[in-house]
UniProtKB/TrEMBL annotation, chain A:
<dbReference type="InterPro" id="IPR006624">
    <property type="entry name" value="Beta-propeller_rpt_TECPR"/>
</dbReference>
<keyword id="KW-0072">Autophagy</keyword>
<dbReference type="InterPro" id="IPR051513">
    <property type="entry name" value="Tectonin_beta-prop"/>
</dbReference>
<dbReference type="GO" id="GO:0005765">
    <property type="term" value="C:lysosomal membrane"/>
</dbReference>
<dbReference type="GO" id="GO:0000421">
    <property type="term" value="C:autophagosome membrane"/>
</dbReference>
<dbReference type="GO" id="GO:0097352">
    <property type="term" value="P:autophagosome maturation"/>
</dbReference>
<feature type="compositionally biased region" description="Low complexity">
    <location>
        <begin position="1093"/>
        <end position="1103"/>
    </location>
</feature>
<dbReference type="Pfam" id="PF06462">
    <property type="entry name" value="Hyd_WA"/>
</dbReference>
<protein>
    <recommendedName>
        <fullName>Tectonin beta-propeller repeat-containing protein 1</fullName>
    </recommendedName>
</protein>
TrEMBL record, chain B:
<dbReference type="InterPro" id="IPR042527">
    <property type="entry name" value="Atg5_UblA_dom_sf"/>
</dbReference>
<keyword id="KW-0391">Immunity</keyword>
<protein>
    <recommendedName>
        <fullName>Autophagy protein 5</fullName>
    </recommendedName>
</protein>
<dbReference type="GO" id="GO:0000422">
    <property type="term" value="P:autophagy of mitochondrion"/>
</dbReference>
<keyword id="KW-0472">Membrane</keyword>
<keyword id="KW-0963">Cytoplasm</keyword>
<dbReference type="GO" id="GO:0034727">
    <property type="term" value="P:piecemeal microautophagy of the nucleus"/>
</dbReference>
<dbReference type="InterPro" id="IPR048940">
    <property type="entry name" value="ATG5_HBR"/>
</dbReference>
<keyword id="KW-0053">Apoptosis</keyword>
Length: 1136, 275
């Protein structure tokens, strides 16, 4: 799990972050600013600084925030000058927006704020609906507004073209001031509190946030249009409140609570995805009438509050349907403030000691937690005495200046804090001494307290004294006793801090700075493996064996090897009638041959017609052991080449999960032993993933890719690796990356085992916890009738009113279970709006009848509708994988290399597509650091779906709209290349995946057709046309020898049909790169495959020749084309 | 890359070439040929010497045969110590094969325990495993195991079946992820120079500051004489399984990889041989 951060402000106004993986506070360095309040979300943190301005700090990322600006150039034809800018008086502007209503000259398009910069100059967009327009991007029509076409016709009187330009948000990892409004009427008075939340309400637009603020006058404001692509939002809008607000808290979902001057709380009702601002307020009375509510904090399903007597309260029964909750429960502790973060975890600041506390033991079943635990993580400024002194002093110089300025502007706020009630005359009021301690701690009083220290009650603090002198003074005073200085905190925000039940935090014990940093160092992939002591032990053991055994091998062994039999009871799926699970006894006999090779036989004893019979499996013939976990059974399938051809494995089930993994681990060990497969897979290994996310790996035998007499791929032995992935991609230098169902990127650590493989079947190091999240979908179906409209009463012939996607299976919310017992629900059912085809505001999709094409709006002809409900479930396992945070990926590709061909290059080219569709290029990937160092963003005009890099740095990609692109000029020295070339898709097909081998380019469309790119030469790497190869393909992987492997959709075996089968294209020759037929391997249930590391060629004399031919024909950049038919051109890679 | 799991294999399959000769005073019917055997380092003498016994019994009269015992250079060999330990303690500097003298008479009652059957070895072995688990897990793991698991441990050792043994033994090597190691390290330190058979104490794998203890820490704590002073000359060899791990080796790692099947870390300290 990636680390996330807790944000806090100390009494000096300095902002610190504490990582969930760390044990030390990091100062958020900014010399100029001190903060009063911060409110964090995962991608950013908003804050109010002491200058009363609002700032947003967007975290640094390798993927830029970029927005497209566009303008249309419109022209009309006239007989005199042809197409020109002289339009008719009734026409649109010559330069306009897409509608033509807005005048939009190119030089009039300005950056929205100083935090943006232009990425490049304006350019004409030549891409028209996935096809290049040529002719300067012009599209033609009869008149404005009309349907535009690519081609100019006789009646084309007008034309237009689109100019685009990207702007990029540049103020990352720094506090960016939110620009004030120009219009003084609109300008809100200074803000006193602010809260960020609401990211779970909807994901449209991506990264949408609700930012709420309270001004000094007690008004509530909402920041419009805050999202990932517009981190600053656009403007503040006033939200009317029935009382004067002092403090506000917005939960991650739809909870918004406000505390009022009068001591009640306001709760916003009617917040939903269509109306994130909500519609009305309700009032919640404080727990006791004499002590009003001072502070509230809302989570997803909880609200915590502090009353004026410092007591902490927990609001029971809060949820989306009842945002007000039911009743207050008093909690222990006296707090100044509390903050609810992600997963409803709670942090608080103690009233007396100003220490930071974490609510320990908060779980979904026990939202109120157990105890307050003090966070004692050190701060970097506390680490070394000398360092802290000087930094404090230098900070103090600023501090003195800053506070003086701030002090003046703060006078009204102070007066407000002391104001006994909702007095409108605050402006004329002067600062006076505080009357009661309870009324103090709202605004920047926080800044004054450290000068007195925690020993003094805040009440007797003289107000209105010279702040700057006080501010400087304590620096000297504090110095002697700051050895035990625990930080004094003013504010905390956990909105970006993901703490889960099983997370172990290191915040609660003090550590020296050195140790903390050493721990960070030991995290990366090379652990103590290289430690000297370990090396010495390995070496000494080898020497010992040599010394004590080398000359004595002829001695007799003291203990003779014997047969070991493990027996047990399992269930077996009877292949013939009655076709059901039957109880069987199984016995695994292991024996050692004379040559020391161990072999094993698995016997399955069953009864048929009261007759004892058995079947047996030689484990050296087993090609795969595949766990098949479902709701009911812990079963696994045993494949042999024969069973693979039949598409009918031996299926066995155990009574418990533990029992199953014991058997699976043991059988795996026996199989590996008999095939002498041990330890980490070789760099050339072929990796694959099943539809259950299980990872399998196979060692390619030398004759696997032999041109003749190749090894049939049903004989390949697949062994399982721990972990859970959706995609895995490898390279022959041992770099392996994976992508989980939740789009998390993982890198292979070099270990083996994990998951259910413990003990001997697993490496000691390099195994880490891995988790994955996937969604389960069910559909709610309704039919329209004239009386009651849409109801859940269908026709008798209709599908189930709650069903799966096909409608054939009934799936209700209550009866639908996670895919297997390994998965646990982590969310409730929610309506899914991100369905292909679109939905209406309630998530419904309409159609004339079941089953049909659904669309997102109701028409007269629609008699049925459906909507998709989604629930997330999570699996926690272990495996040789480490997360590559923080960018989530959709696809990844690593350059295929033949041994020795590119071995000299230190870097390994790796390209990826993020889950948002950004194309990325990983820098710093090498054998020793397979995770690489950072992403280089490659700009695109649209979101992408798939990318592949070939052996000669030819990068191909597929956009989400199904068009293909070639990236020009990619080389080791220019890893991101220079520009994209649009490649027209095969006619009427939308591509979804592309794979580039050494030279061959194959692409797959959404209808399962496999296409070969014809005419790819060094001088024209884009090729000329797509040629159809085959249908029935789900996924393609082209290897470094240009071998073509796919996951086939359906394969018919002699006993059964399997879906998702590993297949290899046969007859792929240099002169026949498309191959001839298919060779069927392991399956079904396979989803993904990567042969891109499999560079092992059969050691044949003719292979040299073959390679030579191949090089000649396909045209590596290194050699000129010699084969007839290939154009003879300059051999250097081309870019136009 | 060599994997840690290979260490387990190397440790398990450690063999000592041994030459058994019958004691000269034993009465034989004909001359007794020496008997050569590869002894597993991790096993026990009386468990793996059936062949030796049969070999010598053939040349002896039935009435002269009583309980077999072994001796090396005048020292009776304790069968309840692992073989590798005996070798490292007594004979590590001598030439191979290891010459062991076989006796059938005058059992040294004060030096050796009787070993009438393999059940005794099993009982001894299992009590060691249980004692070790008491130190490691407060006996929780061993007590949760079934009888057949205990049997599998023993049969694994007896039949020299690495997989069979480790399939169960790995459970004894596990510890909760939130802790950095076992409660206490089960170890025994043997010294040839003292009367005391061995040292054992309670010793945690992790120091109070979360730092992993090393082999050096352990020796400094329980056997300071064995550790050479910083500048002084190395007087002693610290041996485990016939190798000398450096003192910086983390104890928990040693414990997990270089323990004997009885789950104890047997450390012997022998004087540095003068070259």
């Amino acid at each position: 799990m990636p680390s996330s951060e807790l944000w806090a402000v100390d009494l000096f106004g300095r902002v610190f972050t504490l990582s969930t993986a760390g044990q030390q506070w990091e100062l958020c360095r900014d010399a100029q600013l001190e903060f009063k309040r911060v409110s964090a979300a995962a991608p950013c943190c908003w804050g109010i600084a002491c200058d009363n301005q609002v700032y947003v700090r967007v975290g640094a990322s390798d993927v830029p925030i970029r927005c497209r600006e566009e303008a249309y150039e419109n022209q009309r034809w006239n007989p005199m000058g042809g197409f020109c800018e002289a339009l008719l008086p009734s026409d649109r502007w010559p330069w306009s927006d897409v509608s033509g209503l807005q005048h939009r000259p190119l030089d009039g398009v300005a950056l929205p704020s100083p935090h943006w910069e232009w990425e490049s100059d304006w350019y004409v967009d030549e891409n028209f609906g996935g096809e290049p327009t040529e002719k300067g991007g012009w599209t033609y029509a009869i008149d404005f507004p009309h349907t535009y076409t690519r081609d100019k016709k006789w009646n084309s009187c007008v034309r237009r073209r689109r100019w685009t330009r990207y702007r990029r948000y540049k103020s990352r990892d720094t506090w960016a001031k939110i620009p004030s409004e120009d219009d003084p009427q609109q300008l809100p008075d200074p803000f006193s509190d602010l809260s960020v939340g609401g990211w779970e309400i909807t994901d449209e637009p991506v990264g949408r946030l609700s930012v709420w603020a309270v001004s000094l006058q007690g008004k509530v404001w909402y920041r419009e249009d805050v999202s990932h692509s517009n981190p600053e939002g656009s403007s503040w809008s006033l939200v009317d409140t029935p009382g004067e607000a002092v403090q506000i808290s917005c939960g991650p979902h739809d909870l918004l609570w406000v505390s009022l001057w009068e001591g009640q709380a306001l709760v916003r009702e009617g917040i939903n995805r269509n109306n994130p601002k909500g519609s009305s307020w309700s009032v919640v009375e404080p727990p006791t009438s004499e002590n009003g509510i001072l502070h509230v904090s809302a989570g997803v399903g909880v609200v915590w509050a502090i009353t004026k007597d410092r007591k902490v309260w927990f609001r029971r029964g809060v949820n989306s349907h009842n945002p007000c909750g039911t009743s207050w429960i008093e909690m222990v502790g006296e707090m100044m403030m509390v903050n609810v973060g992600l997963n409803d975890q709670v942090w608080g600041i103690g009233w007396t000691d100003r220490a930071l506390y974490f609510r320990h033991g908060v779980t979904q079943s026990e939202l109120s937690g157990k105890t307050w635990k003090a966070i004692v993580a050190g701060r970097e400024c506390d680490g070394s005495r000398a360092g802290s002194l000087s930094s404090l002093l230098s900070a103090g110089c600023f501090f003195g200046d800053e506070v003086r300025g701030g002090g003046e502007s703060r006078v009204p706020s102070d007066s407000e804090a002391e104001r006994p009630g909702p007095d409108p005359e605050r402006d004329v009021e002067v600062a006076g001494p505080a009357s009661t301690p309870a009324e103090l701690p709202w605004t920047n009083i926080d800044l004054k307290e450290p000068k007195k220290g925690p020993r003094h009650a805040a009440a007797d603090f003289p107000e209105g004294t010279n702040l700057s002198s006080l501010a400087l003074l304590p620096l000297g005073l504090e110095e002697p006793d700051s050895a035990d200085c625990h930080a004094l905190w003013a504010w905390v925000s956990g909105g970006g801090c993901a703490v889960e039940a099983h997370t172990t935090l290191k915040w609660f014990t003090a550590h020296s700075g050195l140790r903390a940093s050493m721990q960070m160092l030991s995290l990366p992939i090379t652990p103590a493996q290289t430690a000297a002591w370990r090396k010495q032990i390995f070496q000494q053991l080898t020497e010992r064996t040599q010394r004590e055994l080398e000359n004595f091998r002829h001695y007799e062994q003291a203990v003779e090897q014997s047969v070991w039999v493990k027996t047990g009871a399992l269930q077996w799926w009877c292949d013939w009638k009655p076709h059901k699970w039957v109880d069987v006894r199984v016995a695994l006999e292991q024996f050692t041959g004379h040559d020391g090779v161990r072999d094993s036989i698995l016997f399955i004893y069953y009864m048929i017609h009261e007759e004892k019979k058995y079947i047996h499996v030689f484990l050296n013939e087993v090609t795969a052991l595949v766990p098949v976990l479902n709701e009911a059974k812990h079963s696994f399938a045993v494949y042999t080449p024969e069973r693979t051809r039949q598409r009918w494995p031996v299926r066995l089930a155990a009574a418990t999960e533990q029992d199953m993994s014991d058997w699976l681990a043991l059988l795996n060990l026996c199989c590996c032993e008999s095939r002498r497969v041990h330890g980490r897979p070789s760099p050339q290994a072929i990796w694959s993933v099943t539809c259950k996310g299980d990872i399998f790996v196979s060692e390619p035998s030398p004759d696997l890719e032999a041109p003749e007499r190749w090894l049939p791929c049903d004989q390949m032995f697949w062994r399982q690796m721990g972990g859970h992935l959706r995609v895995v991609e490898a390279n022959s230098r041992g770099v392996v990356w994976g992508i989980g169902y939740d789009h998390t990127a993982w890198v292979y650590t070099g270990g083996y085992g994990g998951g259910c493989f413990q003990g001997l079947a697993s490496s000691t190091s390099n195994i880490y916890t891995q988790s994955d999240v996937k969604c389960v979908y069910i559909y709610e179906n309704q039919r329209w009738n004239p009386v009651t409209g849409y109801t859940s009463r269908g026709l008798p012939t209709d599908r189930y009113m709650w069903s799966d996607a096909t409608g054939l299976q009934e799936c209700t919310k209550a009866s639908t279970k996670p895919p297997s017992l390994q998965w646990a629900w982590v969310s409730d059912w929610f309506v899914d709006f991100s369905v292909p085809g679109g939905t209406d505001q309630e998530g419904w999709q309409y159609a004339s009848d079941f089953p049909a094409l659904y669309h997102g709006h109701k028409t007269m002809k629609d008699f049925v509708r459906r909507r998709r409900w989604t629930r997330k479930c999570k699996l926690v396992t272990s495996g040789p994988w480490l997360e590559v945070a923080p960018i989530a990926l959709g696809d990844v590709s690593i350059i295929p290399e033949t041994p020795g061909a590119h071995g000299s290059g230190p870097g390994i080219a790796l390209w990826a597509v993020s889950d948002k569709g950004d194309v990325l290029c990983r820098l710093g990937v090498c054998e020793l650091n397979p995770a690489g160092s950072s992403w280089l963003h490659v700009g695109t005009d649209q979101p992408f779906a798939s990318v592949s890099i070939g052996g000669c740095y030819q990068v191909w990609a597929v956009a989400r709209d199904g068009s293909a692109f070639y990236r020009g000029s990619v080389s080791p020295s220019k890893p991101a290349g220079d520009c994209w070339y649009l490649i027209p898709s095969p006619p009427k097909q939308r591509l979804k995946q592309v794979s580039v081998g050494r030279t061959a380019v194959f692409a797959l469309d959404e209808n399962g057709n496999l296409w070969y790119r014809q005419g790819v030469t060094p001088s024209y790497p884009q090729g000329t046309s797509w040629e159809h190869v085959s249908n029935n393909v789900r996924r393609v992987s082209v290897g470094p020898l240009d071998q073509v492997w796919v996951i086939a959709n359906k394969v018919q075996g002699s006993h059964s049909l399997s879906r998702g089968t590993v297949c290899r294209r046969t007859g792929v020759q240099p002169l026949e790169p498309k191959g001839q037929g298919w060779d069927y391997g392991i399956g079904g249930g396979w989803d993904h495959l990567s042969v891109r590391a499999s560079a092992t060629r059969a050691p044949r004399s003719s292979s040299q020749e073959t390679a030579g031919k191949r090089r000649g024909e396909q045209g590596l950049p290194s050699g000129p084309s010699k084969v007839a038919g290939a154009p003879q051109e300059t051999p250097n890679p081309v870019c136009c | 890359m060599t994997d840690d799991k290979d260490v387990l294999r190397d440790v398990w399959f450690g063999r000592i070439p041994t030459c058994f000769t019958l004691y000269q005073d034993e009465i034989t019917e004909r001359e007794a040929e020496p008997y050569y055997l590869l002894l597993p380092r991790v096993s026990y003498l009386t468990l793996v010497t059936d062949k030796v016994k049969k070999h010598f019994e053939k040349v002896m009269r039935q009435e002269d045969i009583s309980e077999i015992w072994f001796e090396y250079e005048g020292t009776p060999l304790k069968w309840h110590y692992p073989i590798g330990l005996l070798f490292d303690l007594l004979a590590s500097s001598s030439a191979l094969p290891w010459n062991i003298t076989v006796h059938f008479k005058s059992f040294p009652e004060k030096d050796l325990l009787h070993c009438p059957s393999k059940d005794v070895i099993e009982a001894h072995f299992m009590s060691c495993v249980k004692e070790a688990d008491a130190l490691k897990h407060k006996s929780q793991v061993i007590n949760e195991m079934q009888k057949k698991d205990h049997k599998q441990l023993w049969m694994g050792l007896q039949n020299d079946r690495f997989d069979q043994f480790w399939a169960i033994n790995r459970k004894l090597m596990e510890y909760p992820a939130e802790e950095n190691g076992f409660r206490y390290i089960p170890f025994r330190i043997y010294q040839t120079t003292t009367e005391r058979p061995f040292i054992r104490q309670l010793f945690r794998p992790v120091a109070t500051d979360d730092q992993l203890h090393t082999l050096g820490d352990l020796l400094k704590e329980v056997c300071p004489s064995a550790v050479a002073p910083e500048d002084g000359e190395k007087k002693n060899q610290v041996r485990i399984h016939g190798i000398e791990p450096v003192l910086e080796t983390p104890l928990q790692w040693l414990r997990e990889h270089l323990s004997h099947p009885d789950n104890f870390l047997h450390i012997r300290i022998i004087p540095q041989p003068a070259d």
